[in-house]
UniProtKB/TrEMBL annotation, chain A:
Subunit comment: Subunit of the heterotrimeric GatCAB amidotransferase (AdT) complex, composed of A, B and C subunits.
Family per similarity comment: Belongs to the GatB/GatE family. GatB subfamily.
Domain of life the protein comes from: Eukaryota
Domain Asn/Gln amidotransferase, residue spans: 430-620
SUPFAM superfamilies per the UniProt record, alphabetical: GatB/YqeY motif (SSF89095), Glutamine synthetase/guanido kinase (SSF55931)
PROSITE patterns recorded: GATB
Protein known as: Glutamyl-tRNA(Gln) amidotransferase subunit B, mitochondrial
E.C. code: 6.3.5.-
Purpose of the protein: Allows the formation of correctly charged Gln-tRNA(Gln) through the transamidation of misacylated Glu-tRNA(Gln) in the mitochondria. The reaction takes place in the presence of glutamine and ATP through an activated gamma-phospho-Glu-tRNA(Gln).
UniProt cross-references to InterPro entries, sorted A to Z: Asn/Gln-tRNA_amidoTrfase_suB/E, Asn/Gln-tRNA_Trfase_suB/E_cat, Asn/Gln_amidotransferase, Asn/Gln_tRNA_amidoTrase-B-like, GatB, GatB_Yqey_C_2, Gln-tRNA_amidoTrfase_suB_CS, Gln_synth/guanido_kin_cat_dom
GO MF annotation list: ATP binding; glutaminyl-tRNA synthase (glutamine-hydrolyzing) activity
Location relative to the cell: Mitochondrion
Automatic annotation (TrEMBL), chain B:
GO cellular component: glutamyl-tRNA(Gln) amidotransferase complex; mitochondrion
Organism encoding this protein: Cladonia borealis
Region annotated Disordered, chain positions: 150-176
One Pfam assignment: Gta3
Protein name per its UniProtKB record: Glutamyl-tRNA amidotransferase complex subunit Gta3 domain-containing protein
InterPro entries reported for this sequence: Asp/Glu-ADT_sf_sub_c (IPR036113), GatC (IPR003837), Gta3_dom (IPR049545)
Single GO biological process annotation from the record: glutaminyl-tRNAGln biosynthesis via transamidation
Domain (Glutamyl-tRNA amidotransferase complex subunit Gta3): residue spans on this chain: 62-117
Length: 623, 193
């Protein structure tokens, strides 16, 4: 029994018991968890995914790796000129004779309540085989019933990728036998998918290969809706344990044109597609949690040839790194075969993490004939134009738009902007926007009257206004202040969250309190250290108004008079004459910083570093 | 008496002959077309056409034979067992070839400009309008969502109870049909016999 439990838990993290905390913390955590993560199964067991902090760590690490890679690339170019690392040069020359071509097929699970052709609800962490309709098990006599609600996320995905929507599309059967396919066929859209001719632009900040320049456009051939299969857990040697909860869940398959020619661009493309799908609320989870899978078609051809070589397909890659590694391995294998005079067979290959070469799954002999045929039980899908227009007009801001706004208008770094966009399902970004706007209103309201009208226009932003050229955004954006907000929302608040192991919630530190802290800080009424202390106090539950706290706890920066500075500095100088000698005679300016540090420590937050340094320099007679 | 019955029968046959629709299939040359329609009995006495003609050898070059490899491939695709003896295999191939001949005869029909029939359903404009999915069709679903933040982010409303999540998952037990199970899983042995 325990073996069953452990294998069942394969795809999901083992649930952690809730923290033993004060009532307020516990209720806050439960409230925010309930709305975000908790899924109660039939038996009332709460299964939580502890994915909040886990999610941002790999992404931020990826951004750091990107930056490191760029630095190395620049350094290598210089190095190669000097040392002339021959091995690398030779390899580069060899690879340079061949052109790699990659096409992607991405399968993503749609974010819907129901399955595609049955009224069973789509389950996530439920008890196995608890959400299965008669049609899902293909019991004789059961009929498919297209669930119209599944169209909403599908259309959002297609419009997010700028596709043309076909008013009428059909469903087809793709036949093959496998234990996870009860009907013996999968219902998909082969002959007439519902969306075609999309496109996606990748920029250098998305992590494309440097050879692709500043940006590259990838065309999307089509997007089709299809069914998912059952979840198989293999118990060696040959027993398969099947959970049919997932059968019939709607998937979309996104097929790109073979326009990708470099490995990094391929994984950047998968990443970008996932980002877009998450932004338009079309998918439930990303690749890390199994909501997205990629199949890759790889071929090589001589550098200047227009004709593409024979391609092979690598199936079931479930992480970005796997995509990169598999493409590299397959490209190298194909080059070796072609250079030794052989030819590539059109076959399906598999990849396991940690391998060095792809493995053949099916050769030509085992080639499957899918016998595609239109499904006679399902009437054509007719999508009204009004529906398409409605969804298009309410589509959320796409990642590129948000990134541009954050970097250009708010002055954030690309890395910070990307992290902010992705954290906490967009809640962190909303919090940032609220704090930013609130602070800009406060700043404006302290200006002369004629400016108030201007800010009031920005307050009355609503959905329709968002569509406009960003004038509304400019009204409340200001790089100087926005960068401070981002820093505190991302790093300071982030630090407190990870230490306390709490998921993010905008109620932890209400925007008002955050603005109070930041405005006091920027107007020099408190020091940085005090500000951090105030943040921690608010985070831990202190609900007093920030200004009240400053007043009551006497945290305001009291500017010491010049005499007080002189007195403090003088006493330190008298106590540490040896260090003074080192500064004056040997010019060791580092020791000066030590004095400043001592003064700040003695001053308990009332000493300002710049002033202290100036006074010390004056007394010591150095510049 | 016999004469009267014959007369009735002839009248009925004449009415039947006039009511027969002229379909494409009936464009086959009927040997008795030259005869007057009055002689129904003579016309209907001997069959003028038989389905067997579809299985007989064609005038032009015969189609390529079905090889054993092809037969085995088809059987594997259909998850059917391979033939057990040479005799059975020969019979299967013969049957298959006859069936293919039949299919080729059907393929001779001219279908230029005819849309393939995908399913038997109502194909009128009214039906299309009824099946069209519009904003109104999905209004209830849209009402369960809300827009939050300043970036247009869409999310499920938290004040609306999640109907799907709370309803009874199954009103039947999927496991009751499984021949082999382990806990809540259905078990299949994937080893090749």
């Amino acid at each position: 029994m325990s073996r069953v439990v452990s294998t069942y838990g394969l795809c999901h993290k083992v649930p952690k018991p809730p923290l033993k905390a004060a009532n307020r913390w516990h209720s806050l955590r439960v409230a925010s968890l309930h709305s975000q993560w908790t899924l109660l199964s039939n038996h009332g067991r709460a299964l939580q995914t502890d994915a909040v902090q886990a999610n941002d760590v790999p992404f931020r690490k990826h951004l750091k790796d990107e930056a490191k890679r760029k630095r190395h690339a620049e350094r290598n170019v210089k190095e190669d000129h000097h040392t002339g690392s021959r091995g690398k040069k030779e390899e580069a020359l060899r690879l340079g004779k061949w052109k790699l071509t990659v096409g992607l097929e991405i399968h993503a699970q749609l974010n819907t309540e129901r399955k595609l052709f049955s009224t069973a609800k789509s389950s996530d962490n439920d008890v196995p085989n608890s959400s299965v309709a008669l049609f899902d098990l293909a019991l004789p006599g059961s009929q498919p019933e297209f669930q119209k609600v599944t169209l909403i996320p599908a259309l959002r995905a297609a419009l997010g990728l700028s596709c043309k929507i076909h008013r009428e599309s059909r469903f087809d059967r793709k036949h093959y036998y496998y234990q996870d396919q009860p009907a013996g066929y999968q219902i998909t859209q082969y002959y007439r998918p519902f969306a075609v001719n999309g496109r996606l632009t990748l920029y250098d900040h998305d992590g494309i290969a440097p050879e692709d320049g500043q940006s590259i456009d990838i065309g999307i051939k089509q997007i089709q809706m299809e069914q998912d299969t059952a979840k198989t857990t293999l118990q060696p040697p040959s027993t398969a344990m099947l959970d049919f909860n997932r059968v019939g869940h709607p998937l979309i398959e996104i097929i790109t044109h073979p326009q990708i020619h470099h490995v990094q661009t391929a994984s950047a493309c998968v990443r970008k597609i996932q980002l877009i799908l998450q932004a338009v609320n079309a998918v439930t989870t990303g690749m890390e949690l199994g909501g997205l899978r990629a199949d890759v078609n790889v071929s090589v051809s001589p550098k200047d040839s227009e004709i593409l070589g024979q391609r092979t397909e690598i199936k079931n890659l479930s992480s970005f790194k796997a995509v990169e590694d598999a493409i590299i391995a397959e490209r190298d294998r194909q080059i070796v075969v072609l250079e030794s005079g052989g030819f590539i067979e059109g076959e399906t290959r598999g990849w396991t993490l940690g391998s060095t070469e792809t493995k053949k799954l099916r050769g030509k002999e085992g080639e499957v004939d899918y016998r595609y045929m239109p499904d006679p039980d399902i009437p054509p899908l007719i999508i009204g134009q009004d529906l398409t227009s409605h969804i298009e007009s309410f589509i959320p801001d796409l990642p590129d738009v948000i990134l541009k706004d954050l970097t250009m208008h708010s002055g954030l770094t690309s890395k910070d902007a990307k992290t902010l966009m992705v954290l906490d399902d967009g809640e962190r970004l909303d919090y940032f926007d609220d704090v930013k706007l609130l602070w800009s209103i406060r700043r404006a309201s302290s200006k002369p009257v004629m400016d108030v009208e201007h800010t009031q226009r920005s307050i009355s932003d609503d959905v329709a206004d968002r569509r406009q050229s960003g004038l509304s955004r400019l009204a409340d954006s200001s790089p100087v202040f926005d960068r401070v907000v981002a820093n505190w929302v991302l790093h300071e608040l982030g630090g407190l969250l990870s230490t306390a192991a709490l998921p993010f919630s905008p109620d932890l530190v209400p925007p008002n309190s955050m603005v109070d802290i930041l405005s006091n800080l920027s107007e020099n009424r408190i020091t940085g250290t005090t500000a951090k202390r105030l943040l921690a106090m608010a985070f831990n539950g202190d609900r007093r108004d920030i200004n009240t706290i400053i007043h009551e706890e006497n945290l305001a920066l009291q500017h010491l008079s010049r005499d007080e500075y002189l007195a403090m500095a003088q006493s330190l100088i008298d106590e540490n004459s040896d260090k003074v000698k080192q500064i004056q005679q040997k010019g060791q300016m580092g020791k000066l910083k030590w004095f400043v540090g001592q003064m700040m420590r003695q001053g308990e937050g009332k000493v300002e570093a710049i002033k202290a340094e100036a006074i010390l320099k004056e007394l010591l007679g150095v510049s | 008496m016999k004469q009267r019955c014959t007369w009735v029968r002839n009248v009925l046959f004449r009415q039947l002959w006039q009511a027969l629709p002229r379909t494409r299939a009936s464009c086959r040359p009927l040997s008795s077309l030259s005869q007057t329609p009055d002689d129904f009995e003579g016309m209907l006495k001997d069959p003028s056409w038989s389905v067997k003609s579809l299985f007989e050898s064609e005038g032009s070059a015969p189609a390529p034979a079905v090889t054993k490899t092809q037969l085995h491939h088809l059987l594997r695709l259909s998850a059917l067992p391979l033939p057990e003896s040479e005799d059975q295999e020969a019979r299967m191939i013969k049957d298959l070839q006859a069936q293919l001949k039949f299919v080729r005869a059907i393929q001779e029909v001219d279908t230029e400009g005819v849309e393939p029939l995908q399913s038997i359903r109502d194909e009128t404009k009214d039906a299309e309008r009824e099946n069209e999915i519009t904003v109104t069709t999905l209004r209830e679903e849209f009402d369960k969502e809300e827009v939050v933040g300043k970036r247009g982010r869409i999310r499920r409303r938290r004040d609306v109870p999640d109907a799907a999540r709370n309803e009874q998952a199954n009103d039947w037990d999927p496991l009751s049909q499984a021949p082999k199970k382990l806990g809540r899983f259905i078990v299949v042995d994937t080893a090749k016999d």
